[in-house]
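New to this. Please check this record:
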Amino acid sequence: MPASGAPSTGELKFEQDLVRALLWDQHPDLAGMELRDVSGGWDNQLWRLGEELAVRLPRTERAPALLHTEQTWLPMLAERLPLPTPTPVRVGKPSNLFEHTWTIARWVEGEPADRAPITRVEAAEVLAGFLRALHHEAPADAPANPSRGIPLADMPNVDGWFELIGDHSDAGAVWEVWERAVAAPAWPGAPLWLHGDLHPANVVVRDGMLAGVIDFGEMCSGDPATDLSAAWMLLPAGAAHRFFDAYEQADEATIARARGWAVLRAVGLIEIGRNGRLGLPGGKPTWEPAGYATLERVVAG
């Protein structure tokens, strides 16, 4: 999201012929499998390969570095995570056919939550279990991220972001949530592993239940409040308290910061969603209602 450090567009599109050629060139044992286009994707374009795999090709300037983060760290972390993840199983190397690294990963079955929201309140325990498993102390060489896991007071140009929702009926209440978050004590512990980008398009849903977590390119270390914002971004209204009871590791200051992160991420969703509604490059129309729903849940507590 532009408000959180993501690119402003992702319009470059590759064709299946390129993917098939890359498979024959570097992974010929997989090249005969069925290949299907998959809609969506931001930094990477996605194809389903057979029933259990996916191919991801980077299509933005920053995407190769994000894929490298996944290739380096996700296979190690995925072993302890209780939900399916797109764990890389093969790495595509730069070649004459394609100049960047690319990935063959596990396919995670389900519909993205920006299209099929989580409706079952028991998803609170599922999400809490996933984040408890992920939020362990990160090693010193874990990736850092300039817009994730950091103190909210260090985020630049915040006042400008809130102009987007200035006419919203809850704008005053949202700003109060933000101010309390910025004023809350900073994370006092060691940096923890974070997913870094837990918004509705980066989780998948089956039958109203959280069924998988995808897109670990922003994975980094820092304040867990960044990820805990998912209590309002992903779960049905009223489920946040149930989530934090199950997570068990968040004090009042961490919850306050998490609400601030939810506000910040919601504004980013609204901006990208509005661009999609207006037909602008890089827009995702399904993100706007997800952003406003997040704000409603944050204000309600």
Remarks:
- The longest helix spans residues 252-277.
- Residues 1-10 have pLDDT under 50 and may be disordered.
- The longest strand covers residues 44-49.
- The chain has ten helices and ten strands.
